[in-house]
Fold this protein.
Amino acid sequence: MKLIDVIDVYLARQRSLGMRFESAGRLLHHFGRAVGERQIREVTPESVIDFLNGDKGLTATWALKHRVLSGLFRFAISRGYVDHSPLPAVLPNLPPQQTPYVYSTEELRRLLEATSTLRTGYSQHVPAMYRTMILQ
């Protein structure tokens, strides 16, 4: 069975279970285009790794792609479309998440004071839209 057909059957099943599966569907169709028109049994581990890595290497998107493809290949194995998954067996260590920056009270005060200089076109209401909190 062709890869794109398996993707369509998988998406139809997920949606029949009440899942929206929109972004995963786009990702799977992107995978189908990246791999090309071939049978699902012809998908190689190298083509999967190329898709996972993309042009940016290891990111949080890598983990998302892996999770979505894992679901597709579990489905394909359970239906007998393939015997094994071409996904990598050993997962790489992803870089740590970035620590969010927390503004100090003084930094927030300066940011809010700076909104008084904002002017967009003829509207004088724009600065008021940016002043959403009162600092004590």
Remarks:
- Residues 60-78 form the longest helix (19 residues).
